[in-house]
Amino acid sequence: MTETFVPPTRFAVPGRIAVSNRAAAVWQTATLTEIRRETPHAATFRFAVPGWQGHLPGQHLMLRLTAEDGYGAQRHYSIASPPEDAGHIELTLDHVEGGEVSGWFHTVAEPGDEVQVRGPLSGFFAWPGDRPALLIGAGSGVVPLMSMVRHHRAQGSTVPLRLLVSARSPQELIYAREYGDETTPVFTRDAAAGVPVGRMSAAHVAPLLDRAPPGGWEAYVCGSNGFAEHASRLLVEAGQPVHRIRIERFG
Amino acid sequence: MNVTRGFTGRPRVHHPGLPPGQYDAGDDWPVLSAEVTPDLAAADWSFRIDGLVAEPRTWSWDAAHALAPSAYEGDIHCVTSWSKFGVRFGGVSLDAFLGLVRPDATATHAVAYSHTGYTTNLPLTDLTGGRAWIAWEYDGRPLPAEHGGPARLLVPHLYFWKSAKWIAGLRILDHDEPGFWEQNGYHARGNPWEEQRYSGD
Ligand SMILES: Cc1cc2nc3c(=O)[nH]c(=O)nc-3n(C[C@H](O)[C@H](O)[C@H](O)COP(=O)(O)OP(=O)(O)OC[C@H]3O[C@@H](n4cnc5c(N)ncnc54)[C@H](O)[C@@H]3O)c2cc1C
């Protein structure tokens, strides 16, 4: 074999865990057991999935709805619940205007309804809880990050964990009641009197990097593509190594 | 079949170009990549083919542009279930590059790798015969960075994660070697018409 050449690369973050091929290939029935409103535009859907083999915080699944005529619509959704919630999974869906799948969830779905899921998928965005994690999300991008926060709490972990979450307003902030000291919300349009309003900026990110734990952060960024581009640039400018930034884009 | 109560789906016209489980994204072109979009100037871009070839080679931006141009007009399909119809890419057919390095008779597969370190594996037969390109134009304009510009691999008959963005090279092998998503549970080949999404499909 002739000599090979590999360019110097900065990304090349390996997946955090091996994904079970069998679980990823099998469709399972998930039964809706509860719907909880989070914000005017987002709700959490809790499912019983008896055969669920477990997941790591940050992973997502594929969900399928099937019409009478056999037409199927499949979408990816991040898992909001922590692995400790065995036999159950929770998803939090934004109601997308005119959305085929989120529209069904927000206008038709009731406890007792069944949908098909397969997964968990992708070990890349997963956080097993082992390394200090800096989590940055916007809108429904906070969903996989919340699974990490919940896992961290359920384990009583002392591994450093920080969450920066961006929302339009306090009313639009998903999981608002659940955040603790680990979280800094950023409001882009409206906030309570005295709370600054504006885009996430270097002023939010730089202090977290200045006070990084020994060995630095593993950064997880999740949200729309526009937000992911913005937040990942802020991280790089603040000195976070490119190869320690994992990004989940919701499209 | 597990019919979902009350789910009808959007009114739809059957499009013969739509593989199973896919929907038409229309004008949208979602961006899906796990890494930070690199700042890669055309002048700093290069493309290399090595491994089981008679003559390994590296092309600069200008050297690659000196090859005969070749365009793709057709559809693309992403594993996250959107498809896009009638898109136009401009670049050079991979056959032009491979013809110059001459893969060995024993060569069967390639690993495509990007300037960010991303990798994906492909059977050589999916890269030859006018079915794969190095693309630097989209709709007559330079390919945007978030979609893989200055140049990406384009293998439109497979799910789009195979069309490595910010393409840096191909390593020609005599065996299959899973790439980044393939190690993360995705299918080794990724044929949308057979719904080869995840390993085990
Ligand atoms: C890894 C991953 C994880 C994700 N996790 C989450 C999550 O945790 N929570 C969440 O809320 N989302 C998540 N998403 C996004 C999710 O997968 C869906 O894209 C989202 O729910 C919208 O799907 P939908 O079927 O409701 O909308 P779609 O029907 O796909 O519509 C999307 C947009 O396109 C328009 N549109 C498309 N086709 C037509 C048409 N024919 N006619 C009219 N309008 C059309 C719609 O009006 C709408 O504005 C995730 C995505 C990825 C890739």
From TrEMBL, chain A:
Domain of life: Bacteria
Family matches, as Gene3D superfamilies: Nucleotide-binding domain of ferredoxin-NADP reductase (FNR) module (3.40.50.80), Translation factors (2.40.30.10)
Keywords: 2Fe-2S, Iron, Iron-sulfur, Metal-binding
InterPro entries found in the cross-reference section: Cbr1-like_FAD-bd_dom, FAD-bd_FR_type, FNR_nucleotide-bd, MRET, Riboflavin_synthase-like_b-brl
Pfam families for the chain: FAD_binding_6
CDD domains: FNR_iron_sulfur_binding_3
Record domain FAD-binding FR-type: where: 25-127
Cofactor: FAD
MF terms in GO: 2 iron, 2 sulfur cluster binding; oxidoreductase activity
PANTHER family listed in its UniProt record: NADH OXIDOREDUCTASE HCR (PTHR47354), PROTEIN RFBI (PTHR47354:SF5)
Protein name: Oxidoreductase
Species, as recorded: Streptomyces avermitilis
UniProtKB/TrEMBL annotation, chain B:
One Pfam family hit: Oxidored_molyb
Taxonomic lineage of the native organism: Bacteria, Bacillati, Actinomycetota, Actinomycetes, Kitasatosporales
Signal peptide: none
Protein name: Oxidoreductase molybdopterin-binding domain-containing protein
Region (Disordered): 1-20
Domain Oxidoreductase molybdopterin-binding: 37-181
InterPro entries recorded: OxRdtase_Mopterin-bd_dom, OxRdtase_Mopterin-bd_sf
